[in-house]
Design brief:
Helix content is about 65%, strand content about 0%. It is an all-alpha fold. The protein is extended, with a radius of gyration of 16 Å.
């Protein structure tokens, strides 16, 4: 995880079911906290979308 000084608080509203699933992941020991699970999910989403943007066939044809 990054140092706390590098973190910025962002408030989001999530459906109750999502929060329940996050709690289960923490209870299973997969993540130390809901916050860490959310950080990992956001990181993976950003990586996936940036990878798609960079390597999409449409983008390669115009390059």
């Amino acid at each position: 995880m990054t140092h706390k000084s590098n973190l910025k608080l962002v408030s989001v509203h999530l459906p109750e079911k999502y929060v329940e699933y996050l709690e289960k992941l923490v209870e299973m020991g997969l993540y130390p906290s809901r916050s860490e699970a959310i950080r990992v999910a956001v990181r993976d989403l950003i990586r996936r979308d940036l990878w798609r943007q960079r390597y999409s066939p449409k983008r390669r044809m115009t390059a």
